[in-house]
């Protein structure tokens, strides 16, 4: 069974030969550049480390590493992944921790007196800041919700023909020259809940509750552009892609940001409009990245058209993997949940990592409907030994048939 067959089998809620593995297929299952560079050094691979996502400082995962850890997924990425900066004309750069990497030629942050790095747009306005000794950027620009932009005057560019041609050629090359399952991100131009509040989340939350007519007009405008982008993109990539991704964050560690009732009434209809179009016009499986304690939203997300849930933050309140598998495992594929990236992976021992991986695989893998990945991106402070333990354990314990271990039952 090759990688593409393995992933599609799991997404069909059947048991493949082994649990499919994702390392770097999405910008939410990736690896920080410094952790990746140390991992390569540990494995004796001495190649330049490229930062393809300068927002999160994520590394481009190279083919030898994908093969070493049994990865089955590859991401179809736009040329301008973050901040409108094209991934081309690579140049040397040094991260705050001293790691030598390569970054795109147009990545030119300004160093402030306190050592922070600031990115500016073409109008000279600050859009993102990384504090001194930080690991990634924080947005500081205001998105339409926080800025209270007029929906009718909102300038949201649609995918250009050049972008579509590039993505179409890349998808065809991946499909014909590899056996990876291919995933691409194409959600609304802004995350309809969390993303629209960038720059002033408090103001956006007030707007969401007090001005529903404005919010609906904003959502309508954004969803119209999303549908046009979906039409253009799917025409370009066709059946070469198997999974389409969108993102929104509805939960904190301890509970949701908003009530399921408000989400269902105000946000759900617009996401459903897009997901209905995808299901009616393609064979793609729909992947939603959604952090935090979102147990109460899961039935609504399934009704909305979500096929795959990521990252399955098992340490958040109510996100016990046994409960999730029992209640939703026949209708939802869980993508992630392998090992906690906040505590176990960065601060545990390799034995701790292996134990947690085995526990979660034995719960989530039986019957299919599971793709192995870390709980969100592997952070910069994760030791290479722990990263190796995570993926090596997956390849060892993830061979089917897998049955729930007695100590995991109930």
Can you tell me about this structure?
By secondary structure, this protein is α/β, with parallel strands linked by helices. The protein has a single domain, classed as Alpha-Beta Barrel (TIM Barrel). It is 37% helix and 16% strand. The protein has a seven-stranded parallel β-sheet. The chain has a four-stranded antiparallel β-sheet with strand order 8-9-10-11, with no helix packed on it. A two-stranded antiparallel sheet has the order 1-2. The longest helix is centred in the middle third of the chain and has 26 residues, at 212-237. It is globular and about 55 Å long. 47% of the residues are buried.
- Percent range of helical residues: 25-40%
Distance between the termini: 32 Å
Number of H- or I-type helical stretches: 13
Q: Which strand-content bin applies to the residues?
A: 15-25%
- The ordered H/E elements are HHEEHEEEEEEEEEHHEHHEHEHEHEHHEH
**Shape, please?**
globular
Strand order of the largest sheet: 3-12-13-14-15-16-17
Low-confidence stretches: 406-410
Q: Quickly count the domains.
A: 1
- Rg from alpha-carbon coordinates: 21 Å
Largest sheet: 7 strands, parallel
Mean pLDDT: 96
Total E-strand runs: 17
CATH class identity: Alpha Beta
- Return the CATH architecture: Alpha-Beta Barrel
Q: What is the name of the CATH topology? A: TIM Barrel
Structural class: alpha/beta
């Amino acid at each position: 069974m090759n990688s593409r067959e393995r992933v599609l089998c799991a997404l069909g809620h059947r048991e493949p030969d082994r649990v499919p593995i994702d390392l770097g297929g999405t910008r939410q299952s990736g690896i920080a550049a410094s952790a990746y560079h140390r991992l390569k050094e540990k494995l004796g691979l001495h190649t330049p480390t490229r930062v393809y996502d300068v927002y999160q400082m994520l590394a481009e995962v190279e083919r030898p590493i994908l093969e070493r850890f049994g990865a089955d997924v590859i991401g179809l990425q736009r040329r301008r992944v973050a901040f409108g900066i094209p991934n081309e004309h690579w140049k040397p750069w040094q991260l705050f921790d001293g790691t030598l990497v390569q970054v795109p030629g147009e990545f030119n942050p300004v160093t402030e007196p306190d050592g922070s790095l600031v990115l500016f747009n073409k109008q000279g306005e600050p859009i993102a800041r990384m504090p001194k000794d930080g690991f990634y950027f924080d947005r500081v620009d205001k998105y339409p919700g926080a800025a209270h932009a007029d929906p009718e005057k909102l300038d949201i560019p649609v995918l250009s023909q050049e972008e579509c041609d590039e993505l179409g050629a890349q998808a065809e090359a991946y499909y014909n020259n590899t056996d990876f399952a291919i995933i691409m991100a194409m959600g609304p131009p802004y995350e309809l809940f969390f993303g629209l509040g960038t720059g002033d989340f408090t103001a956006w939350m007030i707007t969401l509750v007090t001005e529903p007519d404005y919010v609906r007009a904003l959502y309508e405008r954004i969803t119209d552009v999303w549908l046009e982008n979906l039409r253009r993109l799917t025409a370009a990539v066709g059946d070469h892609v198997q999974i389409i991704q969108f993102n929104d964050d509805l939960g904190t560690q301890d509970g949701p940001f908003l009530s399921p009732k408000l989400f269902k009434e105000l946000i759900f209809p617009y996401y459903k409009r897009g997901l209905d179009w995808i299901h009616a016009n393609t064979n793609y499986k729909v992947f939603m990245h959604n952090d935090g304690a979102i147990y109460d939203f899961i039935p609504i997300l399934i009704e909305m058209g979500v096929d795959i849930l990521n990252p399955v933050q098992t340490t958040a309140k109510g996100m016990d993997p046994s409960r999730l598998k029992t209640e939703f495992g026949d209708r939802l594929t869980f993508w992630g949940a392998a090992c906690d990236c906040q505590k176990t992976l960065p601060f545990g021992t390799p034995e701790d990592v292996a134990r947690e991986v085995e526990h979660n695989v034995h719960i989530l893998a039986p019957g299919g409907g599971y793709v192995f990945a870390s709980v969100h991106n592997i952070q910069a402070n994760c030791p290479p030994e722990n990263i190796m333990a995570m993926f090596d354990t997956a390849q060892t314990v993830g061979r089917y048939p897998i049955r729930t271990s007695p100590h995991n039952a109930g």
